[in-house]
Amino acid sequence: MDTISERYQHVLSQIRHATGIAGRPKNSVQLLAVSKTKPAGDIAVLYRLGQRHFAENYQQEALLKQQALAGFNITWHFIGPIQSNKTKAIAGQFSWVHSVDRLKIAQRLSEQRPAHLPPLNICLQVNISEESSKAGVSLAELPELAAAITVLPNLRLRGVMAIPEPNSQYAQQRLPYRHLYQAVQDLHLAGLDSYSFGMSGDLKAAIMEGATMVRIGTALFGERDYRV
User: Distance between CA 142 and CA 161 in Å, rounded?
Assistant: First the structure.
Protein backbone atom coordinates (compact mmCIF):
# COMPACT_ATOMS: atom_id res chain seq x y z
CA MET A 1 0.00 0.00 0.00
CA ASP A 2 1.75 3.10 -1.27
CA THR A 3 -0.75 5.89 -0.72
CA ILE A 4 -2.35 7.44 2.32
CA SER A 5 -5.74 6.65 0.81
CA GLU A 6 -4.95 2.94 0.53
CA ARG A 7 -3.52 2.80 4.03
CA TYR A 8 -6.54 4.66 5.41
CA GLN A 9 -9.00 2.22 3.87
CA HIS A 10 -6.95 -0.71 5.16
CA VAL A 11 -6.94 0.64 8.72
CA LEU A 12 -10.69 1.29 8.60
CA SER A 13 -11.16 -2.27 7.39
CA GLN A 14 -9.07 -3.60 10.28
CA ILE A 15 -11.15 -1.60 12.76
CA ARG A 16 -14.42 -2.86 11.29
CA HIS A 17 -13.16 -6.45 11.30
CA ALA A 18 -11.94 -6.34 14.91
CA THR A 19 -15.13 -4.61 16.05
CA GLY A 20 -17.19 -7.35 14.42
CA ILE A 21 -15.14 -10.13 16.00
CA ALA A 22 -15.51 -8.47 19.39
CA GLY A 23 -19.29 -8.45 18.93
CA ARG A 24 -19.44 -4.71 19.42
CA PRO A 25 -21.73 -2.22 17.65
CA LYS A 26 -20.64 -0.81 14.33
CA ASN A 27 -18.92 2.58 14.66
CA SER A 28 -18.22 2.04 18.37
CA VAL A 29 -14.48 2.52 17.76
CA GLN A 30 -13.18 5.86 16.53
CA LEU A 31 -10.00 6.19 14.50
CA LEU A 32 -7.65 8.82 15.87
CA ALA A 33 -5.03 9.71 13.26
CA VAL A 34 -1.69 10.43 14.96
CA SER A 35 -0.07 13.02 12.73
CA LYS A 36 3.04 13.93 14.74
CA THR A 37 6.05 14.76 12.53
CA LYS A 38 3.82 14.60 9.45
CA PRO A 39 3.14 17.65 7.27
CA ALA A 40 -0.14 19.52 7.16
CA GLY A 41 -0.57 18.34 3.59
CA ASP A 42 -0.85 14.71 4.73
CA ILE A 43 -3.50 15.69 7.26
CA ALA A 44 -5.42 17.48 4.51
CA VAL A 45 -5.38 14.33 2.38
CA LEU A 46 -6.90 12.27 5.18
CA TYR A 47 -9.41 15.00 5.96
CA ARG A 48 -10.67 14.96 2.37
CA LEU A 49 -11.09 11.19 2.69
CA GLY A 50 -13.38 11.71 5.69
CA GLN A 51 -11.08 11.64 8.72
CA ARG A 52 -11.89 14.32 11.30
CA HIS A 53 -10.01 13.42 14.50
CA PHE A 54 -6.25 14.03 14.60
CA ALA A 55 -3.74 13.73 17.43
CA GLU A 56 -0.48 15.54 18.04
CA ASN A 57 2.32 14.98 20.56
CA TYR A 58 4.23 18.24 20.35
CA GLN A 59 2.57 21.52 21.16
CA GLN A 60 4.54 23.87 18.91
CA GLU A 61 4.35 21.56 15.92
CA ALA A 62 0.62 21.15 16.46
CA LEU A 63 0.00 24.90 16.61
CA LEU A 64 1.73 25.40 13.26
CA LYS A 65 -0.45 22.74 11.67
CA GLN A 66 -3.60 24.17 13.22
CA GLN A 67 -2.77 27.54 11.68
CA ALA A 68 -2.12 25.95 8.29
CA LEU A 69 -5.40 24.00 8.48
CA ALA A 70 -7.55 26.69 10.06
CA GLY A 71 -10.25 26.25 7.44
CA PHE A 72 -10.71 22.55 8.22
CA ASN A 73 -13.27 21.34 10.76
CA ILE A 74 -10.78 19.15 12.64
CA THR A 75 -11.17 17.85 16.18
CA TRP A 76 -7.68 18.09 17.69
CA HIS A 77 -6.43 15.72 20.40
CA PHE A 78 -3.26 16.25 22.40
CA ILE A 79 -1.58 12.98 23.37
CA GLY A 80 1.96 13.99 24.32
CA PRO A 81 3.66 14.89 27.61
CA ILE A 82 2.49 18.18 29.10
CA GLN A 83 4.82 20.72 30.67
CA SER A 84 3.34 23.13 33.20
CA ASN A 85 4.38 26.16 31.14
CA LYS A 86 2.68 24.81 28.01
CA THR A 87 -0.82 24.23 29.37
CA LYS A 88 -2.35 27.52 28.19
CA ALA A 89 -2.04 26.79 24.48
CA ILE A 90 -3.20 23.22 24.96
CA ALA A 91 -6.22 24.38 26.97
CA GLY A 92 -7.19 26.80 24.23
CA GLN A 93 -6.41 24.90 21.05
CA PHE A 94 -7.49 21.31 21.65
CA SER A 95 -10.79 19.55 22.24
CA TRP A 96 -9.26 16.49 23.91
CA VAL A 97 -6.20 15.84 26.08
CA HIS A 98 -5.28 12.18 26.59
CA SER A 99 -2.09 12.54 28.61
CA VAL A 100 -3.10 14.03 31.97
CA ASP A 101 -1.44 12.24 34.88
CA ARG A 102 -1.10 14.98 37.52
CA LEU A 103 -3.68 17.06 39.33
CA LYS A 104 -1.54 20.19 38.90
CA ILE A 105 -1.73 19.87 35.11
CA ALA A 106 -5.47 19.28 35.23
CA GLN A 107 -5.98 22.33 37.42
CA ARG A 108 -4.01 24.54 35.04
CA LEU A 109 -5.95 23.23 32.04
CA SER A 110 -9.22 23.98 33.80
CA GLU A 111 -8.12 27.47 34.84
CA GLN A 112 -6.85 28.31 31.35
CA ARG A 113 -9.70 26.86 29.30
CA PRO A 114 -11.29 29.84 27.48
CA ALA A 115 -14.77 30.65 28.75
CA HIS A 116 -16.33 30.56 25.28
CA LEU A 117 -15.28 26.95 24.70
CA PRO A 118 -17.00 23.83 26.02
CA PRO A 119 -15.28 21.82 28.76
CA LEU A 120 -12.03 20.19 27.70
CA ASN A 121 -12.36 16.42 27.32
CA ILE A 122 -9.80 14.63 29.48
CA CYS A 123 -8.37 11.13 29.50
CA LEU A 124 -6.04 10.11 32.31
CA GLN A 125 -2.84 8.46 31.17
CA VAL A 126 -2.26 5.27 33.14
CA ASN A 127 1.13 3.58 33.31
CA ILE A 128 -0.48 0.18 33.10
CA SER A 129 2.78 -1.74 32.62
CA GLU A 130 4.49 0.21 35.43
CA GLU A 131 7.46 1.14 33.25
CA SER A 132 9.82 3.63 34.85
CA SER A 133 10.52 5.25 31.48
CA LYS A 134 6.87 6.11 30.80
CA ALA A 135 4.58 8.79 32.15
CA GLY A 136 1.26 7.96 33.67
CA VAL A 137 -0.55 7.54 36.93
CA SER A 138 -0.47 4.12 38.58
CA LEU A 139 -3.61 2.02 38.90
CA ALA A 140 -3.47 2.55 42.66
CA GLU A 141 -3.47 6.33 42.20
CA LEU A 142 -6.15 6.38 39.52
CA PRO A 143 -9.29 6.58 41.74
CA GLU A 144 -8.03 9.57 43.75
CA LEU A 145 -6.91 11.51 40.67
CA ALA A 146 -10.14 10.74 38.80
CA ALA A 147 -12.25 11.94 41.72
CA ALA A 148 -10.26 15.18 42.02
CA ILE A 149 -10.58 15.97 38.32
CA THR A 150 -14.32 15.40 38.15
CA VAL A 151 -14.92 18.54 40.23
CA LEU A 152 -12.81 20.88 38.09
CA PRO A 153 -15.24 23.24 36.34
CA ASN A 154 -13.83 23.47 32.83
CA LEU A 155 -12.86 19.85 32.30
CA ARG A 156 -14.91 16.78 31.47
CA LEU A 157 -13.29 13.54 32.55
CA ARG A 158 -14.03 11.04 29.79
CA GLY A 159 -11.79 8.05 30.43
CA VAL A 160 -8.27 6.70 30.27
CA MET A 161 -5.34 6.33 27.89
CA ALA A 162 -2.63 3.68 28.04
CA ILE A 163 0.54 2.72 26.20
CA PRO A 164 1.42 -0.77 27.47
CA GLU A 165 4.86 -2.29 27.19
CA PRO A 166 5.25 -3.57 23.59
CA ASN A 167 4.47 -7.24 23.08
CA SER A 168 4.24 -9.17 19.82
CA GLN A 169 1.98 -11.88 21.26
CA TYR A 170 -1.70 -11.19 20.75
CA ALA A 171 -2.86 -12.82 23.98
CA GLN A 172 -0.30 -10.83 25.97
CA GLN A 173 -1.28 -7.60 24.21
CA ARG A 174 -4.84 -8.01 25.50
CA LEU A 175 -4.03 -8.42 29.19
CA PRO A 176 -3.07 -4.85 30.21
CA TYR A 177 -6.03 -3.38 28.37
CA ARG A 178 -8.38 -5.87 30.03
CA HIS A 179 -6.92 -5.01 33.43
CA LEU A 180 -7.30 -1.26 32.93
CA TYR A 181 -10.78 -1.48 31.43
CA GLN A 182 -12.00 -3.41 34.46
CA ALA A 183 -10.30 -0.98 36.85
CA VAL A 184 -12.17 1.93 35.27
CA GLN A 185 -15.45 0.04 35.38
CA ASP A 186 -14.88 -0.55 39.09
CA LEU A 187 -14.61 3.20 39.73
CA HIS A 188 -18.33 3.66 38.93
CA LEU A 189 -17.78 7.27 37.88
CA ALA A 190 -20.50 8.71 35.69
CA GLY A 191 -19.46 9.83 32.22
CA LEU A 192 -16.34 7.68 31.83
CA ASP A 193 -17.00 6.34 28.36
CA SER A 194 -13.68 6.67 26.54
CA TYR A 195 -10.85 4.17 26.31
CA SER A 196 -7.91 5.47 24.31
CA PHE A 197 -6.29 2.09 23.72
CA GLY A 198 -4.23 0.64 20.91
CA MET A 199 -1.82 1.70 18.22
CA SER A 200 -0.72 0.31 14.88
CA GLY A 201 0.83 -2.82 16.40
CA ASP A 202 -1.95 -3.89 18.77
CA LEU A 203 -5.14 -2.47 17.29
CA LYS A 204 -7.08 -5.74 17.33
CA ALA A 205 -6.15 -6.57 20.94
CA ALA A 206 -7.19 -3.10 22.08
CA ILE A 207 -10.58 -3.28 20.37
CA MET A 208 -11.22 -6.72 21.84
CA GLU A 209 -10.68 -5.23 25.30
CA GLY A 210 -12.91 -2.19 25.01
CA ALA A 211 -11.07 0.53 23.08
CA THR A 212 -13.32 3.34 21.93
CA MET A 213 -10.45 5.24 20.26
CA VAL A 214 -7.42 3.72 18.57
CA ARG A 215 -4.41 5.98 18.00
CA ILE A 216 -2.92 5.09 14.63
CA GLY A 217 0.10 6.80 13.10
CA THR A 218 2.54 4.60 11.22
CA ALA A 219 -0.12 2.41 9.61
CA LEU A 220 -1.75 5.54 8.16
CA PHE A 221 1.13 7.87 7.35
CA GLY A 222 4.08 5.50 7.03
CA GLU A 223 7.27 5.78 9.04
CA ARG A 224 7.90 9.00 10.95
CA ASP A 225 9.73 11.90 9.44
CA TYR A 226 10.37 15.40 10.71
CA ARG A 227 8.72 17.63 8.17
CA VAL A 228 5.98 19.90 9.46
Answer: 12
